[in-house]
From TrEMBL:
It is an enzyme of class 1 (oxidoreductase). It catalyses: D-glucose 6-phosphate + NADP(+) = 6-phospho-D-glucono-1,5-lactone + NADPH + H(+). Belongs to the glucose-6-phosphate dehydrogenase family. Residues 7-189 form the Glucose-6-phosphate dehydrogenase NAD-binding domain. The keyword Ion transport does not apply. SUPFAM superfamilies: Glyceraldehyde-3-phosphate dehydrogenase-like, C-terminal domain, NAD(P)-binding Rossmann-fold domains. This is Glucose-6-phosphate 1-dehydrogenase.
Length: 486
């Protein structure tokens, strides 16, 4: 792997502590970092290099999937870590940073390969990129990459403005937009499941599929993020990105070669084929929900509007369910139901493919049978379950049976590890590309408008339930129901 300098904005923040440093440390243990690797953490705080390194060491002890028990490995790792104080608005601070990086590159005769990772509030992306350009930091003789985290904008227009500001200094192929769902092993497995199983490949289409259900249920509430969440809601926080990315990965036609370009192209095709919501009306296809007080795991929890920091009159969606149609050759007439919410009965992200029933009842006994189901559990437990029908020899009745395989996730790299390693190699297959992000905003924009104008009923649901009943009716209208609800 190429030698590089990794510049981390927001290095003293929560994401760096919980995810980024533990991920890079695990890559280091797995020898997946280049020989010559230097990370410079940037933050507003005045910290000595030693103080910063001991903060990093603490975060490894607390959050690394492999305990940072080996003190000598931690010490060696920390040798690669430096710190600089930087005010993101202060151009002279960037100039100092540039001299520090250039000095090292010259001393060790390193190529000018630079990663700029923005683990900061998105409002700062534009300023930072402008200053990177102004200071010359982003003019390199090697390669440069920009890594950003969602949210990529607040709506279609702001996303376009943000993208235009990034594009001033970085080409699209240099921008790596992290959507951590794309780093989840089972999301990466979707393409493989279809590709490597001709049986599934043959069935992956409207002729055999009755409907598809994608659920991301969480038990946590708004936690300490009210300030952000109350302005975002489930539609921006989960739906526009993670949920639509899972939809794309599932519904895309298999690319001939699994390259970043081809996967990006196939995903874009899915988004282009999504039937725009105006045609059917947001009201008939979308359910908006908000949790009220209830019990989770035997514990009483507060309702959303009683949470600290939330506006007591808030109409923010903590739950959204929607019916989508992909008007292409393979998926037309198959409803895709997507839902996500906070404070639901269980934590689980899962995809269910319900296959069509046989045309007739089983002729000898006149029994109806349960549909075949392919359930793909993305997390927290990963696995695949296939439901078939068999005759029970004890009572002679046809009954559904499950064939289940759990994926052993012990020692499996975390999403951030996989994604950071891909980025370092320059592979953007499992990143969100601008076309997809823009089309996703375009698709959700009518929902954002309708929510903002309060045009949709706000259904409440008790914490610990499966969400509002209106979401059940969404499927009942089509003769279906959600599978696997608790
Ligand atoms: C984040 C959202 O992107 O994803 C959070 O901002 C959410 O609100 C989280 O809790 C869910 O991720 P995971 O991996 O726990 O399903």
């Amino acid at each position: 792997m190429d030698a590089m300098t990794f510049v981390l904005f927001g290095a003293t923040g929560d994401l760096a502590k919980r995810k980024i440093f533990p991920a890079i440390y695990n890559l280091y243990l797995d020898r997946k970092l280049p020989e010559s690797f230097q990370l410079i953490g940037l933050g507003r705080r005045k910290l000595s290099e030693d103080e910063f390194r001991s903060q990093v060491a603490q975060s490894l002890r607390a959050f690394s999937r492999r305990p940072a028990a080996d003190e000598s490995a931690v010490r060696d790792f920390l040798e690669h870590i430096g710190y600089s104080e930087l005010n993101v608005n202060e151009l002279s601070d960037y100039a100092k940073l540039a001299s520090r990086i250039e000095e090292r590159e010259q001393r060790f005769v390193l190529p000018e390969n630079r990663v700029f990772y923005m683990s900061v509030a998105p409002e700062l992306f534009g300023t930072i990129v402008a200053n990177l350009q102004e200071s010359g930091l982003s003019r390199v003789s090697g390669w440069k990459r920009l890594v950003i985290e969602k949210p990529f904008g607040h709506d279609l227009e702001s996303a376009r403005i943000l993208n235009a500001s990034l594009a001033q200094a970085f080409e699209e192929k240099e921008i790596f937009r992290i959507d951590h769902y794309l780093g989840k092993p089972m999301v990466q497995n979707l393409e493989v499941l279809e590709y490597s199983n001709p049986v599934l490949q043959a069935l992956w289409r409207n002729r055999y599929v009755a409907n598809v259900q994608i659920t991301a249920a969480e038990t946590v509430g708004v936690e300490t993020r009210a300030e952000y969440y109350d302005h975002s809601g489930a539609v921006r926080d989960m739906f526009q990105n993670h949920m639509l990315q899972m939809l794309m990965m599932l519904a895309m036609q298999l690319p001939k070669h699994s390259t970043a370009e081809e996967v990006g192209f196939k995903k874009r095709k899915v988004m282009e084929a999504l039937r725009p919501l105006q045609h059917e009306g947001v009201e008939t296809s979308v359910v908006r929900g908000q949790y009220t007080a209830g019990q989770i795991g035997g514990k009483q929890v507060a309702g959303y509007t009683e949470e600290p920091g939330v506006n007591p009159a808030s109409t923010t969606d903590t739950y959204i369910a929607a019916r989508l149609w992909i008007d292409d050759y393979f998926w037309s007439e198959v409803p895709f139901y997507i839902r996500t919410g906070k404070r639901l009965a269980g934590k689980s992200t899962r995809i269910v493919i319900e296959f069509k029933d046989p045309a007739d009842k089983f002729s000898r006994t006149n029994e109806t049978t349960a549909p075949n189901l392919l359930t793909i559990d993305i997390g927290p437990e990963a696995g695949v379950t296939f439901q078939l029908n068999m005759k029970n020899p004890l009572n002679g009745k046809i009954e559904p049976v499950q064939i289940h395989t759990a994926v052993d996730e012990k020692d499996v790299p975390e999403a951030y590890e996989t994604l950071i390693a891909d980025m370092m190699r320059g592979d953007s297959t499992f990143f969100a590309h601008w076309d997809e992000v823009e089309l996703a905003w375009q698709w959700v924009q009518p929902i954002l408008n309708a929510f903002e104008r309060n045009e949709l009923p706000l259904h409440t649901y008790a914490a610990g339930s499966n969400g509002p009943e209106a979401a059940d009716r969404l499927l009942e209208q089509d003769g279906f129901h959600w599978w696997h609800d608790e």
